[in-house]
Input
Amino acid sequence: MNPFTYHRATNPSDAIADHNRVNGAKFIGGGTNLIDLMKENVEHPSRLVDLNHVGLREVSDREGVLKIGALVTNNEAAYHPLIEKDFPLLSEAILAGASPQLRNMATCGGNLLQRTRCYYFYDTATACNKREPGSGCDALKGYNRIHAVLGASDKCIATHPSDMCVALAALDTTILAEGTKGVRKIAFADFHRLPGDTPEKDTNLAEDEMITGLELRARFSRQFKYLKVRDRSSYAFALVSAAVGLESENGVIKKAAVAMGGVAHKPWRDFEAEKTLHGEKPSEEVFKKFATSFFKGAAGYGHNDFKIELGQRTLVRALSEAAAKGVWL
Amino acid sequence: MSSVQININGEVKDLEVEPWTTLLDALRDKLALTGTKKGCDHGQCGACTVLADGKRINSCLTLAVMHDGAKLQTIEGLADGDDLHPVQRAFIKHDAFQCGYCTPGQICSAVGLIKEGKAKTDEEIRELMSGNLCRCGAYPNIVAALKEVMNK
Output
């Protein structure tokens, strides 16, 4: 690791001010991704501003809004009684990721800021526009089995690695951010970016801002499914994953929220395709049609071509399993 | 250098560390607590698992300075004198290791798992021990050791 200075912040304002004072400073929460990348010489902050003592550790459910503080750990969130009971899709997604040790360290704010697990991003001997803008992308013609099939660009075909974020996308989460200019709310769909010509920018969070919390309203406490497909049965990143929430009325789908992980630079949603499910009776045929439409415009890069078929089958199974939890009269 | 005070296995230790010293390196190199093992050094193998304020973590992916004021337990702190911790006894009884390199991490992780109280079935034990790899493949015996302690 490169040398850096360290500051233990005592509250969010102290953290933001200190972070803003030093060029190249970074916030650290759990550090499970950042320290790893620092060891690989991919990240080299000049200063770390430790957020672990600024508070922001509460989970509350008031007036229909679940609020999760940014410093709540992944395990604390997954096993929190309010979340287990009313937001089981979120619990299921969090527990599908990483290991218990990592989930005890990793924070809910930090989870959103995870960087890609693209091998070329990690390997400083290769070209990567995300790590070094303008250097090229060795994944395009390389071993790109884990890479994106939707929304990619000729500059970057990396995927976002989070499981938690796939559920947060389906649950229409709002992100609370605070910076030197004050606080603001960001809709989940507007938070992560597609690579385009600037893959070095993962999110729309400003340089001076930190995440302070998450707000969730959609619950899908009955008909839900997080389905993760990976190379081994545990402790591996998703090849593809699906987060599904359904609401039904009079035997038909009233509301459907579907997000996919492992297929794009951000958790992928297709709001237009979701609308076609509304008013339909759940059936394999309906779900297959939806899956086809979800993957329209998908393109493989050789080693990851299989994800287009796998992704569609994953959607159909996740939707069917979520639907099976309901009563369709 | 930063001054850090950590309660390790019931003893308060003062140490001077560079900000970039991982907790794992501080334990092994500054405090000579070499029971905690460095495996992959990237949070993928679990050999470095310790208990921080009762919760299992990977000591390789956290900095010593971040633990100023914390209470840590390592493999050296589990036994009560010559009296082994129940999980240590169960590992011996069930032959839950071969080369032993992953064992301190496995045992600390198991202590954390039992305290969390979420695993009930064999399948759940396997899932919630998935952060600890064993290249010798002692997994079935590790599950048996955990089950014995959990059922007591």
User: Anything to note?
Assistant: The radius of gyration of chain A is 20 Å.
